[in-house]
Structures are given as structure tokens and as C-alpha cells.
Design a protein that fits this description.
Helix 1 packs parallel to helix 2, helix 2 packs across helix 3 and helix 3 runs parallel beside helix 6. The longest helix is centred in the middle third of the chain and has 21 residues. The strands form 3 sheets. An 8-stranded parallel beta barrel has the order 3-4-7-10-11-12-13-14, surrounded by 6 helices. The chain has a two-stranded antiparallel sheet with strand order 1-2. A two-stranded parallel sheet has the order 8-9. It is globular. The protein has a single domain, classed as Aldolase class I (TIM Barrel), CATH 3.20.20.70. By secondary structure, the chain is an alpha/beta fold. It is built from 15 helices and 14 strands.
Amino acid sequence: MTTVTLGSPLQQQRIHSINRVFKSAMSEQLGDKHHDPLPQQARLYQTWAKGEVGICVSGNVMIDRNALGEPGNVVLDQHSDLRKFKQWAVAADINGSKLWMQLNHPGKQIPAVLSPEPLAPSAISLGRGLEKSFNTPRAMTEAEIQATIAAFATAATLAKEAGFAGVQIHGAHGYLVSQFLSPRHNQRDDQWGGSADNRMRFVLAVFHAIRAAVGEDFPIGIKLNSADFMKDGFDETESMAVIKALDSAGIDLIEISGGTYESPSMMGAGKKTDVKASTAKREAYFLEYAEQARHQVNCTLVVTGGFRSAKAMNEALASGATDMIGLGRPLSLVPDLAKQAIHNDDFSVDVNNPTTGFKGLDAAAMLSITWYEAQLRRIGRGLEPKYNLSGWYAVFDTFTRLGKFAFAKRRG
């Protein structure tokens, strides 16, 4: 059998990719005042397409303009200017690269400055000090649940109309779909809560609604936590049951991730002090979980988190545990990473740990996120990313762009 490498094309059911490089969603904050994509969004994704990324997934696009996760979010609904989304899709349609849209609803993970009363499966606030910055939600009614499912389907239909090659449901990192799956955050006593089967009912309903809306030929994926990494949260056993159910339902791609705002260490925020030595050696945080999943499902699997070298990426692919390599922050520093890593077995990239020199300011400005957002905006303006970009520059850039929202807590 031929060994699979980063440069190998992928043909699985509805998934078609020129190679095995998968650009995972990152926070971009490139929505205008109407929450349509700015022109910089098109240039950013065109840059990655020129760099020969196989599949690019957008930063999370919200399905409800009354439920924003962050001030600069893009929203796709019936009030959106679809022309701007079409321009984005056309710009990224080069070199065989495919642009997918990630669809999301934040649930209770809406900063207090953006919503006095967010919606969630249950009226349970975020913990670990986050209740100070995120208001206690109201439990969704049956009608609101059904309307949200329909909104996912509407957004997917519009994404297809705009020219996107696929959609991804954001079911990870503590957002609404993840909240429904979590026994910590979903304590409903109706058909949407309680047992593990009931808690997975929402994500399956979202998938089926999207499939009915977009037809049989349009690829649908999901980003799903392997676990929440919290004592009473969504664990690996339940996660494995969910991916088996989604696979049986006909999902095309599952991207494996992990963590929530309450436990963010595996989301790329902060230091990975709890990573095992074997995991660090292989670079990928979730590869062991993927190895188990590979025996359970037939759909395309993507592992995201931790990859830094072509050697580790190729080894992961050769193992058969994952079909594609998910990359986020490395692509914000090396936009043509795909091209370089495919043609250079010794390729590697270091991901920066930016700082202003003041830990309190770094935390207040969420520098571990906003520094990378600043890099994405540089690329969107036609500039090269800057590895030694000052932490102070990122703070100033964030303040200039977001004004009064700049230091409002918007992440864990």
C-alpha cells in the first residue's frame, strides 16, 4: 500500500482535497458593522489558497445576529449581504483549495457586554470565575430550540448559494452544540436533556436539518470535543458515542479537538502543562483518541492541535489515525505552510508566546488570541505576517478596532 503523506490527495465520499492539509477555524474578527465579511477576509483566504491548503475552514460564522460570540463576528442569515460572501468564496477558489464555512451559535458563551440574557440548554452560568463576564443564561424553550436548528440549516443553504464548498458545525469548545452535549451544562428534563442519547439529540437534529436543506452532494462536517477536560463535563466515552452516531447518520468529516472556555488549555490558549510526554513527542494533542475513533467510524477524520513539524504530520497520516492534519496558528505565521511542509520533510514552525512584559495586561488584552488576530489582519491587508510582532502592537490594534469592547472579557 502507498504511504499517505501531506501531499497525498483525498477522495472520500463527498470530501475532495488536493492534499491532507486542513486549515482549522481561528478567531478572525473580520466582520464589518453589519457583520458581513470585510474585504480583508477574501484576501486572507486567497493567500492560504495560494499556499495550497487543501481545505480551509472559516473562523466561526454565527447563525443568529442576536447571539454573537465576539464583537467582530461574521453572521450569515437572511439579512446578510450575500454578495460579500460570494466575493469571499470566489477569492479562495484557486489552486484547487476548498473553502468551507464553520457555522456556530455561542449559547451562553456571549460576553456580558453583548447580551444581558443569553440562551442555553439550561439556566446554568459558566464557572471558574467566568460568571463575572458572562451573564447567566435563560433555558431555551422548545420553540427556540427548533428555531435555532432551522437557523443552522438556513445558514448552510446560504453558504452553499454563496459558493462555499462545504460547511462545518461547531460542536466543540463549549459553544451551544457542545453545551447540549455536556452533562454539566445540559440538565434539562425533556427530550433534549438527561440521558446521553437525549443530549446528543440536538446535534443530530442540526445535522439532519442541514442535510435536508443542502441536498445529498454537499459535504457537512463537525468540529467536536474529544472531551471537555472537566470533572463533570463531556468525556471521551460520551464523545465516542456521539461520533459513532454522527457517522451512522452520514456526516462526512469529523474534526477532533477539545476544551472549553472553562478549561481552555487544549484550545490553544495558554501553556499545555498537562500534556503527556508521549503526546508532546507526537505533537498532536488528540491523536490517541483519533486512533480509537478510527476503528469506530468510516468518515474522514481530522486531528487539530499541536502539530508543528512535517515529520510529525506525516507520521500521524501514515499511522492511519487521521486523514488530514488540522492547523491553526502555524498558518497565521506561515501562510504557505502547506506548500513548504509538503516539499520539505525537515519543515517545522515555532508558535510564538507573545507578551507585553506585563502579565496582567496580557491577560486583559487576551494576547494569546489577539496577537494572532493581528497577524491575520496583516495578511488580509496584503502584508507578510511578522513573527516578532510586538505584543504592544497587538494591544493597540485591538483597542483601535474594538474600542470599548477591547478589554471586555470575550474568552476564557
